[in-house]
Design brief:
Elements: E1 4-9, E2 13-19, H1 22-27, E3 35-37, H2 40-49, E4 58-62, H3 64-75, E5 79-82, H4 89-101, E6 103-104, E7 116-122, E8 128-133, H5 147-151, E9 153-159, H6 168-182, E10 186-189, H7 193-198, H8 200-207, E11 211-217, H9 218-225, H10 230-236, E12 241-247, E13 253-256, E14 261-264, H11 277-289, H12 295-310, H13 319-330
Parallel strand pairs: 1-5, 1-9, 2-7, 3-8, 5-6, 9-10, 10-11, 11-12
Antiparallel strand pairs: 2-4, 7-8, 12-13, 13-14
Amino acid sequence: MKRYKVYGIGNALVDTEIRVDDAQLASLAVEKGLMTLVDRDRRSELLEALEGHLPKAHHASGGSAGNSLIATALFGGRCYLSCRVADDADGEIYLKDLEKAGVSYPLPADTDDPTGKCLVLVTPDAERSMNTYLGASEGLSIAQLDERAIAESEYLYIEGFLVSSATGLPAAVRAREIADEAGVPVAVSFSDPGIVTHFPDQFRQIVGDGVDLVFANEAEAISWTGTDTLDAALDALPGTARRYAVTLGGEGAICFDGNERHRIAPHRVDAVDSNGAGDMFAGAFLYAITHGHNFAAAGAFASLAAGTVVSQWGPRLERDQYGKLRDQFFDV
């Protein structure tokens, strides 16, 4: 029995979610549906333009890997997250959220940079457009890794956003090497279509000779494999990972367990906010496969969890929803 179900590495960000319409998104020159890295000046410019919306904004600790591991932990699997926050108010909030969920973490960093922040703009079609100021997360490095904790985990989960970081990329690569040496399977999230398009060489460094599991959406899978169709991408993905889970938005997902593809039906809802949907899918999926469930069951559970989170505001479920969903689905 390993100490942790999942060890993750990723950016620690405090999210500010604001509702906007498409015209406002265009006037702000924000690319819809993508993650864009911004500096302090650009973040200040956006906040000033959205000043009237701030009193109604929703604030929560976020970051892709953080969202996923908090989900895994609240479903019932103990986790560890390598992240980097400052010793400031936002950093304290972030680490308290991890602690409340049962996710272990390293100590705050000694840095003049503030804890990272992400401005999430959500349009009426539930699409989220992210503007990320990494702050302290930009310095996430090998120093935040816990080699013993990686070796004592059933899975290593690497957030794809780390490909853009000069120090985060080597940390992700080193984490994968430690996992390989310890015989710990590695899962990688492709995270964002724009990131996959602009950082293919960096992703190849993380993937190395191949990983156990890849999480991607349709656009990321097609971009990564250099193909033109979903079917072609699915045929090509085993060259990267022995197994995969490709999400298809409102059409469900396709999961490959190394032998068989499983078509996962969507959990149809009236979507309100897609922020955190992919993270929730990965977190629920990782919970399921580290608790003895097969890929078909894991995919169906992840689809249910992701569909539930997009039906409400924010990247997380209410705390009591996690256990209820798990128990209802697995008939505990």
